[in-house]
Amino acid sequence: MSKILAPGTAAPDFTLPVTPDQRLSLRALRGQPVVLAFYPADWSPVCGDQMSLYNEILPEFQKYKAEVLGVSVDGVWCHAAFAKDHNLHFPLLADFEPKGQVARAYGIYREQDGICERALFVIDENGTIAWSYCYPIAVNPGADGILEALQDLTEKRKSHGQVESAGRGK
Amino acid sequence: MAKLKVPVAASDHILGQPDAPATLVEYGDYQCPHCGHAHPIVKAVRKHFGERMAFVFRHFPLTQIHPEAENAAEAAEFASAHQRFWEMHDAIFENQERLGLPLLSELAAELQLSPEDLVEALRTQKYAPVVREQFLGGVRSGVNGTPTFFINGQRFDGPAEFNDLVEAVEAAMPKARGERAG
Q1: Which of A123, A137, B86, B146 could bond B29 through an S-S bridge, CB–CB 3.0 to 4.6 Å?
Q2: Per the CB < 8 Å rule, is A52 touching B62?
């Protein structure tokens, strides 16, 4: 079985449909943190709660300038209906054709079920995975792990900035 | 395992003694049917443990799926400002299927609070910051839906029927106390 990509790994780039006539590339978001939330399926109760929770917390993610992207193997029309029903205000990407290709690249595709794991990635502004975690499929992971990772990124950036300016001072 | 990041404090809505051997914290949403289901269960669990357990309720309104939840939470805070939190809390859950501004005004009147003041407080979102603060504390503690329970600071992920909660709270009681009682 494949393994979930670990922190420090370059996040594999991808371009996926986000609506029936729009596509979104990960590299287009370079320069800001990205939260990739892979989930098994639209409409299943846990996923609905999980996406509703992120929806509610969007203002907090925005404080870190982070972009949140939901990803599952469902198609764009299914995503559109799901997002409308749940009043979601962030993009859902369709890892639909070739099915699960992006999930495979991130090491979280469940071959036996044809869906992806419930897994979270926080990618830094340079496109490197800063934090990743794969949850049991039936458990809503909440958002505490994501927020801690975003906070760590902010602190790292701050201390890095201090080191650089100290270096220049010499 | 997710842990409660915001310790129980004097500013909390608490039933029972803060130094009780067990504390059950619920993050809940007044429009959530699962929280409505949990309401009488929590009452029964409180009765079962008596003074051995304290109960704390914190707001976690999921406003994008529950449009009435925020107003309900702010109405409970309005009642709290007049020392009537728990009466409002119970009344909202007991009338959950009629949740909305007319119900909240009616409940305020029943508690001898001014419905006009309530409507004004909701319009100006006077209690929104308090509700938001509780919500964000919940997010940082790993609240992942409603209701989410914490027993002595640990998130409880199991099913939350009466027997499940009683068993989990009992298991979280400090051991020494049980021995002394025996």
Answers
A1: B146
A2: yes
